[in-house]
Design the sequence.
């Protein structure tokens, strides 16, 4: 299975967790890692190039930090520019049958993202739009991989997350 991981972090060099996860993903056979902020620092997405990449993959992983209960701005731009009528939906459904998965990092811990926690919702509830997008495009929505408490996570905890992420990508 060919997997494409789209890392969407505006400053990957300052993110200990996302950088480690992306590096670990790159070590998995059949996985291509693409850093969208490095590819499109001006925010101008090459939709044709992105579509060509997606047509050759079986699983698309969107890896990003959750900012204000959503994604970084470039991911929204990427969705708008790449998932177009006539290619992703409508006359052609280029992603139908492929898998969409999220790999999300959060500043708060798991207890924060509970109905009775400070956020009042789970991470999955905040990001339900991605499940809806997958369904609309005829994709299979895979299990979300969440790494929480990134503001306080230890190097040992990061090191433990990497093989877990690799195992999910290998499945």
Sequence:
């Amino acid at each position: 299975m060919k997997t494409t991981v789209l890392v969407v972090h505006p400053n990957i060099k300052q993110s200990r967790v996302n950088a480690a996860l992306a590096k670990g993903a790159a070590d998995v056979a059949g996985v291509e890692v693409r850093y969208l902020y490095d590819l499109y620092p001006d925010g101008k997405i090459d939709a044709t190039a992105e579509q060509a990449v997606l047509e050759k993959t079986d699983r698309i992983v969107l890896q990003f930090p959750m900012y204000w209960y959503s994604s970084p701005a470039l991911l929204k731009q990427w969705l708008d520019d790449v998932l177009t009528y006539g290619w992703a939906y409508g006359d052609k459904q280029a992603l139908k049958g492929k898998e969409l998965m999220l790999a999300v990092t959060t500043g708060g811990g798991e207890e924060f993202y509970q109905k009775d926690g400070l956020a009042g919702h789970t991470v999955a509830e905040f990001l339900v739009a991605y499940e809806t997008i997958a369904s609309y495009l005829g994709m299979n929505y895979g299990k979300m991989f969440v790494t929480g408490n990134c503001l306080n996570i230890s190097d040992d905890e990061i090191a433990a997350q990497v093989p877990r992420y690799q195992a999910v990508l290998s499945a």
In short: The radius of gyration is 16 Å. The longest helix spans residues 155-170. The mean pLDDT is 97.
